[in-house]
User: Fold this.
Amino acid sequence: MSVDLATVKRVAHLARIAVPEADLPKLQGEINAILGFVEQLNEVDVSGVEPLTSIMPMAMKQREDVVTDGEIAERIVANAPASEDNYFMVPKVIE
Assistant:
C-alpha cells in the first residue's frame, strides 16, 4: 500500500498540520516507508503466541469487586457551601 501526494495533502489537512508544498514528497516517502513496515509486520507468523502486556512476568493486583461509598463522604462534602446528609445542596435552577 502506498499513498499519493493528494492523500498526503488530505491527511495533513485533516491533522491540521501545515506542510509546505516542497516537503510533501519527503512526507509521502516517510508515510510509504511506515506503511511498508506495517505490511512487513503482517507477514510475521504469530500463531500460538499469547498476547503480552509486558515482557516481565507480572501478577495482576486484584481486589474484591465490592461497591462501597469509600467511607469518606463527610470529607468529600467538608468544603461544600451547603450539604445535608453527605449530599451537596445546590440552588434550584428550574422553576
